[in-house]
């Protein structure tokens, strides 16, 4: 098997694995512990936000730093081979993310991205979520 098709395959695998990832589970349990109720993978909305909090009109995306290119993040490193292939994938991802956020905002949603690296420390994650929710609730 050549290299490109191998990487294509891992790309497809990464798409398939994109549900119920560790970072998503971390965000869900943090929200649970804050007493917040939410829905998952709202397929009726653009980009199928990972977590939707209807009551606050908030759509959350839990993004992998590598695939979605978290700015200035060490996990969003640049691959050393097949650079054209990867930069094509990356720019497609980031463009699509932008389009999705814009259409959700037009529909009146507040859109937030929780980056994978922000989910590694439960205390920091709770702080990040509190910053999102505290202006809107009694947390
Ligand atoms: Zn990151």
Structural description of this entry:
- The protein is α+β, with helices and mostly antiparallel strands and 139 residues long.
- The chain is built from 4 helices and 4 strands; from the N terminus they run ααβββαβα.
- It has helices spanning 3-16, 22-33, 83-106, 122-133; strands at residues 39-40, 51-53, 58-63, 110-115.
- A 4-stranded mixed beta sheet has the order 1-2-3-4, with helices on both faces.
- Strand 2 and strand 3 (58-63) form a beta hairpin.
- It is globular.
- The model has no long low-confidence stretch (mean pLDDT 86).
- The chain binds zinc ion (ZN).
- The site of zinc ion has 7 residues, from loops.
Hetero ligands: zinc ion
Q: Distance N terminus to C terminus?
A: 54 Å
What share of the residues does DSSP label as strand, in percent? 5-15%
Q: Which ranges are low-confidence, i.e. pLDDT below 50, for 5 or more consecutive residues?
A: none
Q: Strand order within the widest sheet?
A: 1-2-3-4
Structural class, from helix and strand content?
alpha+beta
The tally of strands reads 4
Rounded mean pLDDT is 86
Q: Biggest sheet, open or closed, and with what strands and sense? A: 4 strands, mixed
Overall morphology: globular
Radius of gyration: 16 Å
- Helix run count: 4
Q: What fraction, in percent, of the residue positions are helical?
A: 40-55%
Give the SSE string.
Answer: HHEEEHEH
What labels would you give this structure?
4 strands; 139 residues; alpha+beta
């Amino acid at each position: 098997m050549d290299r490109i098709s191998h990487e294509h395959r891992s790309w497809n695998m990464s798409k398939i694995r994109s549900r119920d990832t560790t970072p998503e589970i971390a965000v869900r349990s943090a929200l649970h512990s804050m007493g917040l109720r939410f829905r998952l993978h709202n397929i009726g909305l653009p980009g199928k936000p990972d977590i939707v909090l209807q009551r606050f009109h908030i759509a959350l995306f839990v993004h992998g730093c590598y695939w979605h290119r978290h700015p200035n993040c060490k996990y969003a490193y640049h691959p050393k081979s097949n650079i054209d292939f990867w930069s094509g994938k990356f720019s497609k991802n980031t463009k699509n993310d932008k389009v999705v956020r814009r259409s959700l905002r037009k529909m009146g949603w507040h859109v937030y991205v929780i980056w994978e690296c922000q989910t590694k420390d439960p205390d920091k994650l709770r702080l990040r979520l509190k910053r999102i929710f505290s202006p809107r609730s009694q947390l």
